[in-house]
Amino acid sequence: MGTRAHEPCPVCGTLVRLPDRLVSGGVTVGRESDLCPRFRGRQADGVRHLKAEISMCPSCHFAVRGDFSGVDLTPDERDELAERLAGDGLLKVFGSASPGRPWLPFHAAEVSGKGRDLPARELGEICLRASWVCRKELDRPFESAFQTRAIRHFIRSLKEDPLPDRTLSVVVYLVGELNRRLGQHREALNWYANAERTMRDGGLEGLTWLERMIEEQSKLAEAEAA
Ligand SMILES: [Zn+2]
């Protein structure tokens, strides 16, 4: 029996119960083609594992991946974040609904992350995870919405963030795969080809799983486009 940790919200000071870390280390059995982990056990457990990554304040909806310990805000930043969170439409509509939507903490983490100027790649990772949770919950419209947002952040990160070769190839592949899942097959094929090129340029022979994935998903996109 572990005692659950509480931490004050860096924005409004509310004492927040952090997600139970015990559930975060779920046993994964492989990954889907958009790198969503497959968890052993029931679908609901998978959602719980994914959600355990995010800490969200229930009063102001400030949210981060991990816990609040690394968050250090100036009073101005605090005010700005509080305003941004209070003005967000989705948080306004779904923030007090019970039971809460499973994607809400991820959306809150994206809004908070934008307010803290997190790198675009980090925002993309948050939206990608939100899309995984939506898929596990069979919420198709929100899955697509978060995939679209992940693509936008990832493309910006390719322009702005210094990505190591390995990460670069994975991000480029993901932009392709998310496009394919959204039915944009030609876009997807272009991005898969780009991903292959970045692997060649980066001399990434060791990443055979990614090579295999690019090849399989390219074939799939070609078949779907026909
Ligand atoms: Zn708060």
UniProtKB/TrEMBL annotation:
It comes from the Bacteria. This is DUF2225 domain-containing protein. It comes from Rubrobacter radiotolerans (Arthrobacter radiotolerans).
